[in-house]
Amino acid sequence: MMSRSLVKHFDRFSITPNPLKKNGNDNSGLYFLYSLMNHNCISNTKSIIHCVKDDSSSAQIDVRALRPIKAGEEISTRYVSSNMGLPTRRELLLEHWGFTCNCSRCKDPSELGTYTSAVKCSSCQSGYFLPSLDLLKEWSCNSCSKGLSKIRLQMIINENTEKIRTATRSQGPKIDVLKELIVDLKDSLHENHFLILQVEYILVVLMSNSIPSLSSSIKNKNITINNIDPSIWKEYTALCEHIYYVMNKLDPGKN
């Protein structure tokens, strides 16, 4: 039997969606070869968990390339979600895996020009507070150089997170409520902020399900817009294009 101290040094892979889920219980897998792969926030592979044949008591993990991998290039995976801000990713990686990520995304305060962590500057109204590469230092506005303390930053994130929870908690999220929420969030966050992207994704799903002809077309992988209101279709595609634009920079090859 493997000791607890040894298990801590291997990557534990949560199975979601879980093909082994029984009686409502989640499972995790320990994959020795997979655990040797290093993390990169812009990894060049994706991992797929599936049952081995018809054996519901076990599962295997497949690692597949997201894009062409050059000879000599390290094959990497991702330990945390790509739809997280820089501070959250770095803190999780440091806390659970014991290292500070220095990938191209983490070394760039703008996160490859996406600004998915950027908070609007209330002083100059034209700039954004960008993450400091030092987790303990305050953020600086890219326009007026005003500083933002970590405490104040966390307050802004917590306030907006609570708004999202409130909008999605009571009897399920509603399309009009989420549209208003996105406008509200943009008052303090960059339009590409990861919290706004999360709301936009929920909104896309709701809109897909609320339009019978669109929902049916997506399920059949044959999208037609003959019976869809042009204004709704324009709004729907704009949301999809925005999400794709940002995520294709942060997670190229997966979308």
UniProtKB/TrEMBL annotation:
EC number: 2.1.1.354, 2.1.1.357
Keywords recorded for this protein, A-Z: Methyltransferase, Transferase
Species of provenance: Lepeophtheirus salmonis
Lineage of the organism: Eukaryota, Metazoa, Ecdysozoa, Arthropoda, Crustacea
InterPro entries noted in UniProt: SET_dom, SET_dom_sf, SET_SmydA-8, TPR-like_helical_dom_sf
Molecular function in Gene Ontology: histone H3K36 dimethyltransferase activity; histone H3K4 trimethyltransferase activity
BP terms from Gene Ontology: methylation
Keyword Transferase: yes
The protein's name in its UniProt record: SMYD
